[in-house]
C-alpha cells in the first residue's frame, strides 16, 4: 500500500517501508533517532532536472545545494548523477573535494567568504565563485593576483522579489544580506569591477528568490528583472552572459497542505522565459544553472524516533516525547515548519487520538509536530516524521550534549550506514581539561 501522497509504502505487517525496507527493522538495527534516505528517489529527482534540460536541448548545470545535506555519501550520489555541487563554506568545499566531486563542477557561495575560503577555492581550481559583495571582490582579486590565476565569477544580485515563504528563508528581496542590489547601482558597480579585472571572468548573474516556493511565477519575474539589467549592460558594453544561475527553492510536500509542482514544470518555465528574453535582447541563449537542495533530498528522507514519555493535560492536550527533537530537526523551532508523522510500527491502525510531539531538549520550543492524529500511542512505538531529508542533519546540533543521529541509505533492497551516530567520546573530543 502506498501512503497517501508520500513516497513511502506499508508492508503486510502494517509497518512503514522506505525504498522497500521495513523502517521498524531499521530502527531496531541502527537505533533511533535515525535519518533514512531512499537513494533511488534522490536519483529520480536528480534525473528529473537533468533530463528536462536535455530534452529541451538546453545547456545547463544542475548544482546540488549541499547545505541541504552534505556528507561524503550524498555527494558521491550527486557525482554519479552528473550534478554539480554548490558549497557555501570551507567545510562544505572540503566535503565535496573529499567525496571526489570534480572541482570544476563546484560553485562557491557565501556572503562572508574568508580569505582562507577563497584561497582554498582558487588552489583547487573550482568552477566558479558566486561573488556576493565588494569586500569579497577585494579579497578575491588579492588571492588571484598572488596565485596568478583567473577564475569564473557570477554576480549574485537581488531582484527584489518577495516570495511567499517564511521570512527567514526569503533571500531575493532588497533588504537581504545576500548579493548586490539591482536598483541602487551596486550591481552595476560590481559588474564593472569584475568585467575590468584581468583575473576575473564575468561569466553571468545569479539570483535565488527564496526557498519552499510552490509556483513558477516568482522565478519568471526574477528572470525578467535580471534581463532588464542585462539589457543595460548589453547596450552599454555589448555584454552577453554565458550563464544565468536562477538558484533553487523548489517546494516539496511536508504536509498534506503542500502542493508541490512536478520539478519539470519549473525547468520548463525557466527555459521558456530565458529563451524569450534572450531572443528579445538578440543575444545567444545563456546556459541555465539551477541550485536545488530541498527538492532533491527533502522528501526522500524521514526520521525515525522512539516514543518515550506521555503527558496528558486534561482539557488541554496530550504530549508524547521522542528521543530526538530540535537537535536533529531545528526547522519547526526556527521557522514554525510543519511536518507529518506516522507510527511506523502501526501504519494500518485507525487514528484515535491527537497528540503533540515534543523533543527531549530542555526547551519549551522543542516541539516537532503540534496536533498529530495517531492510533492509541504507546511508549516504545516508533514515530516516523516524513520529509526530513533537507536541512535536518545539516542543521543538527549537540544542544544538551545530545549526539548527532546516524544516517542510513536504502537502495535496491539494501540498507547501508553512511554517517555513524556520534558517540559521547565524539562529543567531548574537542574539550580540553582545566585542572
Ligand atoms: C543561494 C542558494 N541556492 C540554493 C539554495 C537551495 O534552496 P532549496 O534547498 O530550497 O532548493 C539556497 C537556500 O535557500 C540558497 O540560498
Ligand atoms: N535552511 C532553510 C533553507 C535555507 C535557506 C538558505 N538560503 C530551511 O530549512 O528551509
From TrEMBL:
Pfam families: Orn_Arg_deC_N, Orn_DAP_Arg_deC. It comes from the Bacteria. The keyword Transmembrane helix does not apply. PROSITE patterns: ODR_DC_2_1 (PS00878), ODR_DC_2_2 (PS00879). GO terms for biological process: lysine biosynthetic process via diaminopimelate. InterPro entries: Ala_racemase/Decarboxylase_C, DAP_deCOOHase_LysA, De-COase2_C, De-COase2_CS, De-COase2_N, De-COase2_pyr-phos_BS, Orn/DAP/Arg_de-COase, PLP-binding_barrel. Specifically catalyzes the decarboxylation of meso-diaminopimelate (meso-DAP) to L-lysine. Homodimer. This is Diaminopimelate decarboxylase. It comes from Ornithinibacillus halotolerans.
Amino acid at each position: 500500500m502506498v501512503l497517501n501522497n508520500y513516497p513511502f509504502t506499508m508492508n503486510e505487517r502494517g509497518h512503514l517501508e522506505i525504498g522497500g525496507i521495513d523502517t521498524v527493522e531499521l530502527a531496531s538495527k541502527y537505533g533511533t533517532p535515525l535519518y533514512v534516505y531512499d537513494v533511488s528517489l534522490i536519483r529520480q529527482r536528480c534525473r528529473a532536472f537533468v533530463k528536462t534540460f536535455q530534452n529541451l536541448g538546453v545547456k545547463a548545470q544542475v548544482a546540488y545545494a549541499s547545505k541541504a545535506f552534505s556528507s561524503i555519501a550524498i555527494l558521491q550520489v550527486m557525482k554519479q548523477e552528473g550534478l554539480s555541487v554548490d558549497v557555501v563554506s570551507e567545510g562544505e568545499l572540503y566535503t565535496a573535494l573529499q567525496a571526489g566531486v570534480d572541482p570544476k563542477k563546484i560553485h562557491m557561495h557565501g556572503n562572508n567568504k574568508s580569505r582562507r575560503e577563497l584561497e582554498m577555492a582558487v588552489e583547487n581550481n573550482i568552477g566558479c565563485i558566486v561573488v556576493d559583495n565588494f569586500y569579497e571582490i577585494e579579497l578575491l582579486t588579492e588571492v588571484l593576483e598572488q596565485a596568478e590565476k583567473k577564475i569564473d565569477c557570477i554576480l549574485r544580485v537581488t531582484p527584489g522579489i518577495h516570495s511567499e515563504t517564511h521570512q527567514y528563508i526569503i533571500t531575493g528581496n532588497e533588504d537581504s544580506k545576500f548579493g548586490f542590489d539591482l536598483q541602487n547601482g551596486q550591481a552595476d558597480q560590481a559588474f564593472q569591477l569584475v568585467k575590468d579585472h584581468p583575473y576575473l571572468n564575468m561569466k553571468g548573474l545569479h539570483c535565488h528568490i527564496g526557498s519552499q516556493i510552490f509556483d513558477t511565477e516568482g522565478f519568471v519575474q526574477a528572470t525578467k528583472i535580471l534581463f532588464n539589467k542585462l539589457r543595460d549592460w548589453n547596450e552599454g558594453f555589448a555584454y552577453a552572459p554565458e550563464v544565468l544561475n536562477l538558484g533553487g527553492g523548489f517546494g516539496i510536500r511536508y504536509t498534506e497542505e503542500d502542493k508541490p509542482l512536478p520539478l519539470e514544470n519549473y525547468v520548463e518555465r525557466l527555459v521558456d522565459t530565458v529563451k524569450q528574453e534572450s531572443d528579445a535582447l538578440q543575444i545567444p541563449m545563456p546556459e541555465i544553472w539551477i541550485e536545488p537542495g530541498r527538492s532533491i533530498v527533502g522528501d526522500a528522507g524521514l526520521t525515525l524516533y522512539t516514543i518515550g514519555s506521555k503527558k496528558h493535560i486534561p482539557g488541554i492536550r496530550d504530549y508524547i516525547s521522542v528521543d530526538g527533537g530540535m537537535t536533529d530537526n531545528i526547522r519547526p523551532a526556527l521557522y514554525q515548519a510543519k511536518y507529518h508523522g506516522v507510527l511506523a510500527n502501526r501504519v494500518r491502525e485507525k487514528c484515535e487520538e491527537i497528540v503533540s510531539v515534543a523533543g527531549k531538549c530542555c526547551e519549551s520550543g522543542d516541539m516537532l509536530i503540534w496536533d498529530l492524529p495517531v492510533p492509541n500511542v504507546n511508549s516504545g512505538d516508533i514515530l516516523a516524521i516524513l520529509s526530513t531529508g533537507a536541512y535536518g542533519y545539516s542543521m543538527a546540533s549537540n544542544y544538551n550534549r545530545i549526539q548527532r543521529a546516524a544516517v542510513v541509505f536504502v537502495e535496491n533492497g539494501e540498507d547501508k550506514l553512511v554517517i555513524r551516530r556520534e558517540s559521547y567520546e565524539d562529543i567531548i573530543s574537542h574539550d580540553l581539561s582545566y585542572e
